[in-house]
Amino acid sequence: MTVRARTWGLRFRLREWLDRSWIVIPSAYVAAALVLGKVVPALEGDGGGPFGLSLAPDSARDILQAVAGGMISFTGLVVSVAVVVVQFGAGQYSPRLVLRFRRDPAVKHALGIFIAPALYALVSLGDVGGPGDQQVPNLTVALALALLVGAIIAFFLLIARLLDLLRPRRLYDQLRLGCERAIDQVYPRRLDAATAAAQPLQLPGAEPIVHRGTNGVLSAVDMPRLVHAAGAAGAVVELPIRVGEYVWNGEPLLLVHGGAAISERELTRAMIVSEERTFTQDPPFALRTIVDIALRALSPAVNDPTTAVQALDTLETLLHRLAGRDLGIGRLHDAGGELRVVYPAADWVELLDLALTEIRSYGTGSHQVARRLRALLLGLLERVPAPRRAAVEHQLALLDASVARSFPDGERELATVADHTGLGGRTEPRED
């Protein structure tokens, strides 16, 4: 096992903490502002000011005081705007998107940029224009004005960023990228005849290892650590629960099959339990979030089927990616080819149901959604491996039944046409 593999869990925890933290990035700006506030006044010379500035000490103090007071008030205003945008996004799309706003580094950098001019000006005031001080603090004021201009530019960029994050296409694209990375990690093997015909595992009796700690969600598993620990003991470690499921203190978390004595502490450290699900090893969570946005759009209060159609565009891409992977039970082997870890994962039928069932249930009363669903399913039917076509055909049959219930005879024909844009688009199957 490489050093990088051995430190996977540590890097995951550190990355999660950094992504969630609103302390690290703003604190870097605070520290820089404090240092500059002490260093820059000490560098002042006796010559004329840069950028054409030529100020008396009293005028410089007035400018620094205005910068400090104004930026503190301005930062409060910006935080209020950001909170309103997050509330709107959570109400309009899904509460699960709050985590996306919280993780966005642009928002954290913007907050740091906003508070830096105020702190710099406050610290600089202590060294500018004291009793009997006739030194002209041109450099100090010039840097304060430069930081102020930078904050104004950052404000415009932040507003553009927040508005961009509220666009459905932008949200779907971020969710798609996260889901694709999770698919590559959880389902790394391509589906072929050998994997499709894999026999059920026959494992010896199991010794359970229970969770000892705070209740929470199994957000990720340090697979390299599990493989290493199981290989050292000559055992097979099985996960009875999936990533994304809720676990509580005393619940069986792992099953150890055969082998010599194994370090329970080493195994439990590989199980990362936190407050909520993440995309890292949980493709269904990304699908769940996309579906939630579509369902909110299809609710009577919103009534926005076009956003649901855009969700189906993203789901179609992900389902085609999943269709060619070896799904279901995952198996990890050590360097010698021995089976060491077995973990459960969603199979093709479960993923197809997760992606389409609720959208079909709530959306087939809309011509757009019914037509886009049909185009998605017909495209899958053409391209998925033969063992998986039966599940797609079942979804088509359910769609036909839903359309028959939802539309009267005069409108049913329009709803049964496959259309990649919902209404008014191309109706023939997509060509490769």
UniProtKB/TrEMBL annotation:
Keywords: Ion transport, Membrane, Transmembrane, Transmembrane helix, Transport. The chain crosses the membrane at residues 21-43, 63-86, 106-123, 143-163. Pfam families: DUF2254 (PF10011). One of its GO terms (molecular function) is proton-transporting ATPase activity, rotational mechanism. One of its GO terms (cellular component) is proton-transporting V-type ATPase, V0 domain. The keyword Membrane applies. Belongs to the V-ATPase proteolipid subunit family. This is DUF2254 domain-containing protein.
